[in-house]
Fold:
Amino acid sequence: MEGAYKPGWFARSTGLIVALYLVLPILIVLPVSMTDQRFLSLPHESLSLQYYRNLFASPEWFASIAQSFWIALGATVLAVVSGTLFAIAAWRLDRRLVNLMRALMLLPLIVPSIVYAIGLYRYFRWWDLLDRIAGVIIAHGVTGIPYVVITVSTALAAFDPRLEQAARGMGANLSQLLRWVILPRIMPGILSGAIFAFIHSWDELVIVLFIASRDVFTLPRRIWDGINENVDPTMAAVAVLLVFFTVLLLLADLAVRKKRDG
Amino acid sequence: MTLELHGLAKSYGSFVAVEGADLMVGRGTFLTLLGPSGSGKTTILSMIAGFTEPTSGQIFLDGKDITSEPPEKRQFGMVFQGYALFPHMSVAENVAFPLRVRGMSKAEREEKVRGALDLVQLSRFADRLPKQLSGGQQQRVALARALVFEPALLLLDEPLSALDKKLRAELQEELRALHRRIGRTFINVTHDQEEAMSLSDSVAILNHGRIIQLGAPEALYEQPRTRFVADFLGKSNFLPGTVRELGQGTLGVQVGALRIRQEPGAAKVSLGAPVLLSLRPEKIRVLGDADTADNVLEARVTSWSYLGAGFSIIAETAVGPLRLAMPAWHAPFHPAEGAAIRLGWSAEAATIVEDDDAGA
Structure:
């Protein structure tokens, strides 16, 4: 921004400290994953890729990665479809009840996930969804809805209502209006929401601890168990891959936004 | 195609936006709804398009009541204020939209789009996105899109308001030529009186939700029915007076100390009745020494400005300040502040108008 005050040394150094604080805990896993020791530690003598080899040779880790991926994919579809439909409905019917519903939709972000997990445990026991992939997809899908509602609502707020009038004036019915005008206009918001919903499911642990036991063993849960049972540095290698994957998704989100704004 | 409005009204709570509008628009007419902001012109257009539901009254298209039909069934073309082009579609896709909606085949669509883009001279820009075009070009795309499905009626909502003055004049020309060429009915909404006069066959002047006067631009300018019309369409001097003489063809109207000779025109007057005269600035002449006129008045220039084609002068007189317009190329004198001049106008120059007190 031209004509604005330049940041001083205080603002610069606090900014740097905050950035380091955010990034350091993530960066530390990189050297740890390349340790030459037999336990979770920084490398002593030399760097080694043995734990990456270990990871790719291990069927358990691989199974967990695959499982986490499919669960996140399913949860994303669930969150995107219901979140988008809700956001469009709330946008069309701006009434008091809808505002209450909107607050309800954001609840999974506000309520501590452990509370949510306890509640889910009760219901899932009745419905026989415990330790089932479908159960985890439903749980993650529902808790991923707020991300989609927020991003899609933001996209809809920027939607010019005259475009709808124009489309109707030219004879478009509701479904043509949705498919050809509204959805293409809010697609960047939907994609953003999808990416966040995916990341949410991909690294969710608390709910999984409650509703899964032997059959469903997602990646965050395997890392968690690994830390509790042994201090195998393979976890650090997994963590690096996780970080790498997440950064890729965030870059994709940035690209989507840039395309929308540019 | 005939469009008729019968007592069309719209209120929002206690606010009356449109108060019983009656209008008949014949085939091929270019009608403009002209009024200041808040006069209800856009609401009327929106009711014709079907976006706003009237509180009462009916809309007939060729005798068929379409009041409760949704906009997508009415099949009118519309150009929106700010154009409302679809930003994610190319120019050609925008223009093809109404055809796609109607399930037209791709080949047929392409042909019609080409025709419509040719009509507005934009064929070269078919593959661009709207944001890559200038305001005037976007405006033409909106026109092509509204006309491509050959609607019987084209609605225009302040179509030129976003453009600068020169471009606006250019597009006015184009719009008028286009109207002549395709011979469809256009209904235009604007607050720009010049635009209304230059484009339209017929103008409806609105104020406070009511149609005050409807007629050809020339008729409205020459015979304004009320003070508001005279004031909104061009400039005018207003002289309040009383009828003192009912002569053969002329009246004697007492304005202050001055007896003005005035033709009654269409107005019905009686002796002793108060009347309001509307006198256009360009109808007041600056008289030379030997010149004479039906009404002559001594005046003193209080201010003036040069406008290229002419001078605009304000002069103090016995009946108050008068504004006059004097062509520059045959000005009988060069204006100067304080200069004493003689003003004159003929008995048919002024018009008797109804004082609806909305002008000042």
